[in-house]
Amino acid sequence: MIKTPYDIVGWNGKKTINICNAEEVIELVRKVIPDEIYYLAAYHHASQDKKNEDLDLFKMSFDINVFGLINFLEAIKHASPITKLFYAASSHNMEIQKHVFRTKQRP
Question: pTM to 2 decimals?
Answer without folding.
Answer: 0.71
